[in-house]
TrEMBL record, chain A:
Protein name as catalogued: Ferredoxin
Keyword terms of this UniProt record: 2Fe-2S, Flavoprotein, Iron, Iron-sulfur, Metal-binding, Oxidoreductase
Domain called FAD-binding FR-type: residue spans: 4-108
Molecular function GO terms recorded: 2 iron, 2 sulfur cluster binding; metal ion binding; oxidoreductase activity
SUPFAM superfamilies linked: 2Fe-2S ferredoxin-like, Ferredoxin reductase-like, C-terminal NADP-linked domain, Riboflavin synthase domain-like
UniProt cross-references to InterPro entries, sorted A to Z: 2Fe-2S_ferredoxin-like_sf, 2Fe-2S_ferredoxin-type, 2Fe2S_fd_BS, Beta-grasp_dom_sf, FAD-bd_FR_type, FNR_nucleotide-bd, MRET, Riboflavin_synthase-like_b-brl
From TrEMBL, chain B:
Record-given protein name: DUF3445 domain-containing protein
Domain of life: Bacteria
Organism this protein belongs to: Acetobacter aceti
Length: 316, 347
């Protein structure tokens, strides 16, 4: 097994932003944390001895000295336990291991103008964008959508931003006129969006309908792997069998069984955990594989996808 | 690295580049097997490896001062060997930080870095450079940060922006290249700059390579070896100067082959840069004449077999056609055909 990569931290401060949103400031225990590019996420590992959770969160801020890292965690209703654990037991002093840090949603540095669209917790990657864009004098606008009862929380979160470029809405995108604003954007504008699936689908369809070139439309699906029907995997190289329970992911089951399986984002977005399927039918839940790859049925992303059949045979 | 305090090497006529026994044995010989074909030969760039050249983040050897002087001469003649597009500003600082951090921790006897917040001071004892500056403030350095640092490191460096699921060559300093040009490749995507390479595309190597590199993570650099052959110890075999070095290829004879023909190996390392999310591609070039390779029995036998059986399309692409038969003929008597251990280590 390779040396364990990452950084030990512990929770320094917790702030309750809304009943479902909490801000956690993590403090480095040993060396300073490396600089991060806007849009990066960190995989956090934490737990209570009974269970170890590994969840990826957008990095909202890294302090100048590299000693503190801020994330915002939403209590996910379909949580398999990670966000619930942080909301209930994430108190100052709790050790949190920062595993991989990577960026699947970077700012396009060559863009003339940036239009940022977010809903709910989808604001988190843009909090790091805004700081950078302001410091380099970029042309940008943010429209954020939230429920009326959350408005004051997001207003507060954005209070230090340039108020001529940042707008919070409590109406639906279709009601406040977002389609018209998108239509009025110039051909050089890049659109970035992040939020719940319904919002993502609306922006995807609307930008497509309005003729935005695919290369100018960027999104990050924040994705909590959901459970499902239990199944069994057969590891072809050793012949071992590993059971995947209803509330754990295939990747987690492999890790518990000490199988050295590849992974990075743990959210179906990067593709690093791809494994060859030798038998059985995958239930694809990622955002990476092409339609042709899905149809072929011979690869699976273990971090989010499951099985339609009772067993899957993997080339591991 | 052996002590060296003055310019000793000459990479132009009259050529003079001498390799000590230590330098020969630490050479990254590129052939782990008796046959060569393109492959995804990428492995983690962890310190240590089959040869000493892989034991540091950036390898510094006895030719450091000579190579830095040659680089400075090439840049003086052709300043556009170093170009960086404006959106790569953060990547420039990332590069400078990686270079200074790793050189000062890998070679504390040659390089010293002190940091107090953003007030940094850098000392390069080999080149007699001493510089205090504010990290992040380009006005406090005599050159742009990328150029400042790349001039103090052996090898070539390119900076790649990641966007639209591709890597774009948006900056670099290229002075020791095997017949490619930064001026030509600037702004190109991964597939565009690889377009001249035969066979590899149909083998799917570029698709897999790009997919892999798009997921490259900070703190987990990777490396691979690439190779070609160069006549005379010329670092700069650029298309811009083809009229100077091109004719060398027709000068190889049975008498001068061991002196003139060099195995040119690139130890290529790739790093994710943290602030910019850019990818740094470092290409460290090693030139080893046949006469020095001859001193290692395993390497001379393997080089004979690889060159003898090389795919003709690859031989042409690498520019070996005019002298490959002469080299093979020269090496043939020194290969007894005995089986060799796999891997690139010298025994």
């Amino acid at each position: 097994m390779a040396e364990r990569m990452g950084f030990p931290t512990s929770i320094e401060r917790v702030e309750r932003l809304t009943p479902t949103l909490r801000r956690f400031v993590l403090r480095a225990q040993k060396q300073a944390l490396p600089p991060v590019s806007p849009g990066s996420y960190a995989t956090l590992e934490f737990g209570d001895g009974e269970k170890v959770y590994k969840n990826a969160y957008s990095i909202v801020m890294r302090s100048e000295d590299g000693l503190e890292l801020t994330v915002i965690v939403r209590l996910a209703p379909q949580s398999r336990g990670g966000s619930r654990f942080l909301h209930e037991k994430g108190q100052p002093g709790l050790p949190v291991w920062i595993g991989s840090v990577a960026n699947l949603f970077p700012i396009v540095k060559t863009a003339r103008r940036h239009l940022l669209l977010s809903a709910g917790i989808g604001i988190t990657p843009f909090l790091s964008y805004l700081k950078k864009m302001r410091s380099i004098g970029a042309d940008y606008t943010l429209h954020h959508f939230c429920r009326p009862e959350e408005r004051s929380a997001f207003d507060a979160l954005l209070s230090e931003q340039d108020q001529t470029r940042v707008f919070v809405h409590t109406g639906l995108p279709s009601e406040v006129g977002l389609a018209d604003w998108l239509r009025d954007e110039s051909i050089a504008t890049h659109v970035y969006f992040c939020g719940p699936e319904g919002f993502m689908k609306w922006v995807e369809e609307t930008t497509h309908k309005l003729g935005f070139a695919p290369g100018k439309v960027h999104s990050e699906h924040f994705f909590v792997p959901e459970g499902g029907r239990p199944f069994e995997v057969i590891l072809a190289r050793s012949g071992r069998r590993v059971s995947v329970k209803a509330d754990e992911t295939l990747l987690e089951a492999l890790e518990l069984a000490d199988v050295d399986a590849p992974c990075m984002c743990r959210g179906g977005a990067c593709g690093a955990c791809e494994v060859t399927v030798l038998g059985g039918q995958p239930d694809h839940r990622d955002h990476v594989l092409t339609e042709a790859e899905r149809a072929s049925g011979n690869i699976i992303l273990t971090c989010v996808s499951r099985a339609k059949t009772d067993t899957l045979t993997l080339d591991l | 690295m052996s002590g060296q305090t003055q310019i000793r090497d000459s990479y132009r006529p009259p050529f003079r580049v001498d390799n000590s026994e230590e330098t020969i044995l630490r050479f990254p010989f590129p052939f782990p097997e008796d046959n060569y074909m393109y492959s995804m030969n990428i492995e983690p760039h962890v310190k240590g490896g089959p040869v000493e050249a892989m034991s540091h983040t950036f390898d510094v050897d006895e030719h450091y001062i000579g190579e830095c002087a040659e680089k400075a001469r090439i840049l003086a003649e052709d300043p556009k060997r170093c170009m960086v597009l404006p959106h790569m500003r953060d990547a420039e600082w990332d590069f400078l930080e990686l270079g200074m951090d790793s050189l000062s921790s890998d070679y504390p006897e040659h390089f010293t870095l002190k940091k107090e917040g953003n007030d940094w001071s850098w000392e390069n004892h080999l080149l007699n450079i001493s510089q205090s500056f504010v990290f992040g403030d380009a006005a406090t350095l005599p050159l742009a940060p990328f150029e400042y640092m790349a001039r103090q490191m052996q090898g070539d460096f390119t900076l790649h922006d990641q966007r639209e699921n591709d890597l774009w060559m948006d900056g670099g300093m290229v002075t020791s290249q095997a017949d490619w040009s930064l001026k030509f490749d600037m702004g190109m995507s991964f597939r565009q700059w690889h377009a001249p390479v035969p066979k590899a595309s149909e083998m799917g190597i570029f698709d897999r390579g790009l997919r892999f590199l798009l997921m490259l993570q900070y703190g987990r650099p990777v490396r691979r070896l690439n190779w070609t052959m160069t006549i005379n110890p010329r670092l700069d075999t650029s298309p811009e100067n083809y009229m100077i070095w091109g004719e060398d290829r027709a000068s190889v004879t049975a008498e001068n082959v061991a002196e003139k023909v060099h195995l040119r190996v690139e130890l290529q390392t790739l790093y994710r840069l943290p602030r910019s999310n850019a990818v740094l591609f470092a290409i460290r070039c090693y030139l080893m004449p046949i006469k020095d390779i001859m001193t290692v029995p395993k390497w001379r036998k393997r080089l004979h077999r690889v060159l003898r059986d090389l795919d003709p399309a690859l031989a042409s692409y690498k520019g070996l056609d005019l002298f490959r038969p002469t080299v093979v003929e020269f090496l043939r008597p020194y290969d007894d055909g005995a089986p060799l251990s796999s891997g690139i280590q010298s025994v």
